[in-house]
Design brief:
- The chain has 284 residues and is α+β, with helices and mostly antiparallel strands.
- The chain is 27% helix and 34% strand.
- The protein is built from eight helices and 13 strands.
- The chain has helices at 11-23, 33-39, 83-94, 109-114, 152-159, 168-176, 214-226, 242-250; strands at residues 4-8, 44-49, 52-62, 66-74, 99-105, 118-128, 143-146, 180-187, 190-198, 204-211, 233-238, 254-263, 275-277.
- Strands 1, 2, 3, 4, 5, 6, 7, 8, 9, 10, 11, 12 and 13 form a 13-stranded mixed β-sheet that branches.
- Helix 2 (33-39) runs antiparallel to helix 6.
- The longest helix has 13 residues, at 11-23.
- The protein is globular.
- The termini are far apart.
Length: 284
């Protein structure tokens, strides 16, 4: 009889996870795992059948009371055999007692509701080659800097306006990996925007995109697009931020994918008006 067990991930497993996510059409960033894994090394679980990885989930702890689920995958040969649900239960057990978030594809939302999740908003992926916005003006005194030059404590404090828990270790890796561009909009020493573009197997992913105004968001997006002219971008936009939806349309991007942001507890009190794109549908 085949033996099935759920274990933690190795470094090589994280690479495999990226391949599985690509096969599902999720288009993760090429080096995202190098930021994801340090965020919570114990938060990546694999179901193994006779030692062979066949299912996965990430159940990453942030702070003391928040967690995020992603990468819930059962490989096609074992679907419908109960292995995926065993991995799911292990992931939820790891996050017991926390408010848990996830991004649910449309077809799975009813299943997640039965597990206690409820919808907060939809993240819509806008994709395409962005039109240049020559009229983007951030406002007087706003400068764009490489985010790597901004003190990490300042960057992390700004991120806390948009994310329910501290994630300093994750952010340090997220802005410093070599295949990405991270920009900060600064006025009089204060952050007014932050955005990251990273390489992926398909369209380059952009996330997060935070800004205190549509003008700053447009300037950041225009600057990121200019680093790789003619390259398509994929941006996951919370539909409750209608200014961001209009911005994507202004840049000529079109919807290609949709997932519901769901939580087991109260919707976190974050600055949705300033969140023009979430960081990642995999880890929040």
């Amino acid at each position: 009889m085949a033996e099935f067990e759920v274990t933690g991930a190795s470094v090589d497993d994280i690479t495999l996870l990226g391949e599985w996510a690509h096969d599902e059409g999720w288009n993760p960033g090429r080096s995202d795992g190098h930021a994801f894994f340090p965020a919570d090394p114990g938060g990546f679980l694999f179901g193994r059948l006779d030692g062979r990885a066949v299912a996965s989930i990430s159940a990453v702890r942030y702070g003391t009371d928040f967690g995020f689920v992603g990468f819930y995958i059962a490989t096609p040969p074992v679907r419908g055999q109960g292995y995926g649900i065993q991995v799911w239960r292990a992931g939820l057990e790891r996050l017991a007692g926390r408010n848990i978030g996830l991004d649910a594809v449309i077809s799975q939302q009813d299943n997640y509701r039965r597990s206690g999740f409820r919808r907060a908003w939809n993240n819509i992926r806008y994709e395409g080659v962005p039109a240049s916005d020559a009229g983007a003006r951030p406002g007087d005194g706003v400068r764009l800097l490489h985010a790597r030059t901004v003190p990490l404590a300042q960057l992390a404090a700004y991120d806390r306006r948009f994310f329910p828990a501290p994630r300093d270790t994750f952010l340090a890796a997220w802005v410093s990996l070599p295949d990405r561009t991270a920009l900060a909009a600064v006025r009089d020493g204060e952050l007014h925007g932050f955005a990251v573009r990273r390489a992926a197997r398909g369209a380059c992913r952009v996330g997060p995109l935070y800004a205190s105004s549509p003008e700053i968001a447009a300037t950041l997006l225009d600057a990121l697009a200019a680093t790789a002219p003619g390259t398509p971008l994929a941006i996951d936009v919370p539909d409750v931020n209608q200014q961001s939806v209009r911005l994507m349309e202004r840049f000529g991007l079109t919807p290609s994918f949709e997932a519901a942001r769901m939580y087991t507890g109260p919707t976190p009190d974050v600055d949705l008006a300033g969140m023009y794109a979430v960081t990642s549908i995999e880890l929040g």
